[in-house]
Design goal:
652 residues; alpha/beta; 8-stranded mixed sheet; 30 strands; 22% strand; globular; binds adenosine-5'-monophosphate-propyl ester
Length: 652
């Protein structure tokens, strides 16, 4: 941390247009947001249309995990994202749908989007979905995903979107947990030229589930799929019977907007619940300042709406701000690694937001794929999801941005609802790999092993938050105690992020990654416990331990240490290893398939039976001589055996 970092000064042409013109301006606004939070957030709430004013700005108590913003206020998220824009920008493009094959894409204006959302809302109502009901959405990146989520918001139903790469079992778990009465899916998804049989995955997921009353099926391709009479309905047919108007429900600021499942250290994924007024205020404010979005800009977040990045920064933030947002159905390498820049050229994108894993994957394909396209429209380049290594940052800055764009390395989480630590265009100089400064209202601190707040500026510790902000999740759906335990009990009075972090002498924050048993694989968040439980379900497996290891493209790769039930020959072992990898892909989703499986004779356990992952993590990176204290292990000799097997694997 003491080494000198390369810094990149604010670019003058960026500052010329940016909302904030100097570090001093940021500091003054930041100070106000921390010293007088209620005053600050009262003003910011004016970004939204309220049907009825709120009585109290905030009522938060982190120690008790009690978070409430704008109570008494009535508003509707869909109204804020659609209706209020109609008079001024009804004909402006709200969503540019960039289909898997670019020629199939289309522009959807605010007026069209409003009509589609209203029709969809009427469909949901006609099928018995009421305010407060949960609706599970398992859709690819097609416009119907935007229609259905906004339709839920319009009638006060709570959506729970499940990324369309998850398995039937994962969907089923989520449906059961939130008791979704309706599931919305498509006959098939299309991605990178391949078709994905989504409806048949949903059929498996809902088989025998009484809670699911209906399945609404959108038609993305020409393929006919079996429809169960009385349960399955065609989305298009249902919409064709509905009127394009539907009143927006008056929701309380603290009424739920959505549930989004995310992985933690232990147990099954948690359904984080976000509510209405605070979430939308935070989404809208962060979207405006972090991406410095101005009227007329074309904004592209290349994430999937199945993750929180897509919720906040493809749909809610941009639409609340009346922006033009791109929904990208395909993958960065289809039909070739130039796809992102082809999109930038065709749509004259000004702001582009993606994940380090995608940047690394296309960077290695060569600069020619970037240079082929005109990128002169670009102003801001964003990254999110995992720490960005300086090489990838510099490639993004030099090659993609030609040193003319500001980079915003945005740190945040499913739980935080929106961006928390980030550079702001026009404000601060950039440091490759640093998320830099807290956003307005965000009050971070670093704590040490003992849970003591570290006062020194230059420090290394666990990243916590000392005050609530409007975008913070309110609870884990159906299990408030788990919410409290997971985030607020480790350091009483603070929100614990689960991330390690350095703060340099300038006060800039550098996120170092998770300090718990969560891993970020290609920006997808997974709990090692979930993967282990899937591996352990294989009949030949006695036990397993999963760790993340540095991976050139994915950021983190998945390595499973596995003990088999009996001694078996090498050939059979190889088959079991493959079967175990497939099992995880089937149980959770392909993105969770372990990269490496190491069959070993035992696991390093303490006498009380706890697996010491610290040792496995060191072994996974070849730090055999630096394992720390192993004397507390029940059987220290197992360590040498595992090292032996790991060395063999590395040799291969
Ligand atoms: O470890 C941090 C990492 O992603 C985690 C949150 O994952 P998820 O809830 O899936 O949300 C991802 C998208 C908001 C964090 O705890 N992370 C996210 N952004 C960054 C990051 N790590 C370093 N730098 C970032 N910019």
């Amino acid at each position: 941390m003491t080494e000198a970092h390369v810094t990149y000064p604010v670019l003058e042409h960026i500052r010329k247009r940016s909302y904030l013109k100097s570090r001093d301006e940021y500091t003054a606004m930041y100070k106000k947001s921390i010293d007088e939070p209620d005053e600050f957030w009262r003003e910011q709430a004016n970004r939204l249309d309220w049907f009825h004013p709120f009585q109290k700005v905030s009522d938060c108590d982190l120690a008790n995990a009690s978070i409430r913003w704008y109570e008494g206020g009535k508003l509707n998220v869909a109204h804020n994202c659609l209706d209020r824009h109609l008079s001024e920008r009804g004909d402006q493009t709200a969503i540019i749908w960039e289909a898997d094959e670019a020629k199939d894409g289309r522009h959807i204006s605010y007026r069209e989007l409003h009509a589609e959302v209203c029709k969809t809302a009427n469909v949901l109502k006609s099928m018995g979905v009421k305010r407060g009901d949960r609706v599970c959405i398992y859709l690819p990146m097609i416009p119907e995903l935007a229609y259905t989520m906004l339709a839920c918001a319009r009638i006060g139903a709570i959506h729970s979107i499940v990324f369309a790469g998850f398995s039937a079992e994962s969907i089923r778990d989520r449906i059961l947990d939130c008791e979704a009465k309706m599931v919305i899916t498509a006959n098939e998804g299309v991605r990178g030229g391949k078709r994905i049989a989504l409806k048949s995955i949903v059929d498996k997921a809902v088989e025998g589930l009484e809670v699911v009353e209906s399945v609404l099926v959108c038609r993305r391709t020409d393929t006919d799929v079996p429809m169960k009479s009385g349960r399955d309905f065609s989305f298009e047919e249902a919409c064709s019977k509905q009127r394009p108007t539907c009143p927006a429900e008056w929701m309380d600021a603290e009424d739920p907007l959505f549930i989004l499942y995310t992985s933690g250290s232990t147990g099954r994924p948690k359904g984080l619940l976000h509510t209405t007024g605070g979430y939308l205020t935070y989404a809208s404010l962060t979207h405006k300042y972090v991406f410095d979005v101005h009227p007329g800009d074309v904004y592209c977040c290349a994430a999937d709406i199945g993750w929180v990045t897509g919720h906040t920064y493809i749909i809610y933030g941009p639409l609340a701000n009346g922006a033009t947002t791109i929904m990208f159905e395909s993958v960065p390498t289809y039909p070739d690694p130039g796809r992102y820049w082809d999109i930038v050229e065709r749509h004259k994108v000004n702001i582009f937001y993606t994940a380090p894993t995608a940047i690394r994957a296309i960077a290695r394909e060569g600069d020619q794929w970037v240079k082929k396209y005109d990128r002169s429209s670009l102003r801001i380049l964003g990254t999110v999801g995992e720490p960005i290594n300086p090489e990838a940052w510099e490639w993004y800055y030099d090659v993609v941005g030609e040193q003319k764009c500001a980079i915003v390395d945005t740190w945040w989480q499913t739980e935080t609802g929106g961006i928390m630590i980030t550079p702001l265009p026009g404000v601060n100089e950039l440091k490759p790999g640093a998320a830099t400064l807290p956003f307005f209202g965000v009050h971070p601190c670093l704590v040490d092993e003992e849970g003591k707040k570290i006062e020194a500026t230059e420090a290394k510790g666990y990243l916590c938050m000392q005050a609530a902000w409007p975008g913070l999740a309110r609870t884990v759906y159906g299990d408030h105690e788990r919410f409290k335990q997971t985030y607020f009990s480790q350091y009483p009075g603070l929100y614990f992020t689960g991330d390690g972090c350095n703060r340099d002498k300038d006060g800039d924050y550098w996120i170092t990654g998770r300090v718990d048993d969560v891993i970020n694989v290609s920006g997808h968040r997974l709990g090692t416990a979930e993967i282990e439980s899937s591996i352990n379900a294989h009949p030949w497996v006695a036990e397993s331990a999963v760790v993340g290891y540095p991976h050139e493209i994915k950021g983190t790769g998945i390595l499973g240490f596995v003990i088999l039930n009996a001694n078996i020959g090498d050939q059979a072992k190889e088959e079991i290893v493959q079967a175990v990898r497939e099992q995880v892909a089937t149980d959770i989703g392909k993105f969770a398939r372990p990269d490496l499986i190491l069959v070993c004779p035992g696991l390093p356990k303490t006498r009380s039976g706890k697996i010491m992952r610290r040792i496995l993590r060191k072994i996974s990176v070849g730090e055999y001589g630096n394992l720390g204290n192993v004397t507390t292990l029940a059987d220290p000799s197992v360590v040498d055996q595992i090292i032996g097997v790991h060395k063999e694997m590395v040799k291969k």
